[in-house]
Amino acid sequence: VTTHHTSGKLPPLAGLCTFDEAQRPGLSVNECVRRLKRSHYSLKRLHQIFNSRISPEPIYELKMAFSLHSHYCAEHVATMSRRIGEMREPPLGLNTVPDEHLKILFDEIIAAPTTGELLIGIYEVALPALRDALRQHLADTNPLADHPSVRIIRFSLLEIDEMIELGQASIGALLDADQRAEIVDWLNLLNNCLANAGGLAGTAEPAEKPVERQHSTLPYWYDSAPRRDKRFSDPYNMGVNAEAFLYDEQ
Q: 170-202: buried (b, 16+ CB within 10 Å) or exposed (e) per residue?
């Protein structure tokens, strides 16, 4: 089918694509699910990382950013879970680690000992890799047959681009060249993890680069101590005690 008959020259297929685009080969259902599972895993780990660093991060602007970005990731995890469930019968295997090198990548980021390393791991490595994987999915899939995936990926990309922009602006404000130079080896480790995984999408030929855990040799330990920067005198933000009002008989 290459032609259509309409009144005038109206866009075909509700404007989703042309007939030629609709007829081109796309991804199989298996491949769509495989790629979405890797993106789902990455977003789930990023949600965990953001949540784990809200309390111990002293800089208020970063607390706000981590809170918002955690929320974004949680929403996109949910939409991808639903989409995978539309294409597969349970069990969906959403708790399965898709690649051991991706696990090491996110284990290293969550264990980053400094704010600078954390920001670079998230906003210069993990999120750009996720963005590239989702863009590749859009380019490779059939825009008509896989339109439900296309919709959720487009929305994900809008907010991933927003996250990257804010994160990289924060890196520029907080890190200088000397601080970057100190973490070159660790940054190489993160990139080696991605290369050995065949990229976040798992579509490239897996490399065999050296990977040795640096910050994640021990299991991750959550630091629950609240921290605030010098603008706040009370780390628990109890300047106004809500419970005092709640239980006041007056």
A: bbeeebeeeeeeebeebeebbbbbbbbbbbbbb
Residue-wise pLDDT tens digits, 157-213: 999 999 999 999 999 999 999 999 999 999 999 999 999 999 999 999 999 999 999
Helix/strand/coil for 142: coil
Q: Per CATH, which fold does 26-217 belong to?
A: Ferritin (1.20.1260)
Predicted confidence (pLDDT) per residue in 80-135, tens digit: 999 999 999 888 989 999 999 999 999 999 999 999 999 999 999 999 999 999 99
Tell me which residue has tokens 């005092």: 244
Q: Which of 39, 109, 107 is nearest to 76 (CA)?
A: 39
Whether 69 contacts 165, CB under 8 Å: no
Asked if residues 189 and 211 have their Cβ atoms less than 8 Å apart, the reply is: yes
Boundaries of every domain in the chain:
26-217
CB 131 within 8 A of CB 164: yes
Determine contact, residues 192/210, Cβ cutoff 8 Å: yes
